Amino acid sequence: MNLQDLSGTFSVFDVAMTLALSFVLSFAIGWVYKRTHKNVSYSQSYVQTLVIIGMVVAVIMLVVGSNIARAFALVGALSVVRFRNAIKETRDVGFIFLVMAVGMAVGTRFYVLAAVATVFILLITFLMQRFNWFHLDIQRQVVKVQVPPEGDYQSDITDALVGLTLEFELVSVETMRGGALTELFYSVRLKKGVETSQVIEALSAVNSGQKVSVLTGYDQSDM
Question: Of 4, 13, 59, 211, which is least packed with CB atoms within 10 Å of its CB?
Answer without folding.
Answer: 13
